[in-house]
Amino acid sequence: MTGSPPAPIVPVPAASQSTLRGHRVIVGVPGLGWRGDLRADDAVVRGSRTFVPVITEQDYYRAETDDLEVFAPLVPIDRVWVEQVAEGCSPMLVTITLDAPPQRAPLPASLATNITGARVVRGVPDGHIRGLRAVTEIYDNDSGAACARVCDEAEWYAWALTGTTPATVEVAVDLLWVE
User: Fold this and answer.
1) Which domain of life does the UniProt lineage start with (predicted)?
2) Where are the domains of the chain?
């Protein structure tokens, strides 16, 4: 693997954040389970309770691209965690508990079984680029190098919403991790 691996994704309680709009979130109930690939809007107070409007990433990109309002269920803030990059940390093995969503250490793409549609991180000389999706599996290019094609996440969702094929870039597999 060339370059340093990306830092892991660490979930933090939404109540500890001053703004939530546009952030990736995980919702769930400790001990029961978790759901990701969601985006949040800023918290709202109803009576004495605080809620977070949460929508799927596809609805988030549709709303942002088309300047639409979409229905967002209100989730109690204590059931919402914000995905944050643990800057300055190396990927590590994580002890799994049922009290909070697990940390996610990036996996080298060469070790993943399937990557099409997966969130990926691209290594570049000065760090890492996140917010990408793989649009192909790993393949050997004309030069015989193992590669995959990736696109910006907004274009990934636009592809589903409008049928517009995303602009992609070929990335050597040794510079690619799966989140």
Assistant:
1) Bacteria
2) 9-85, 107-178
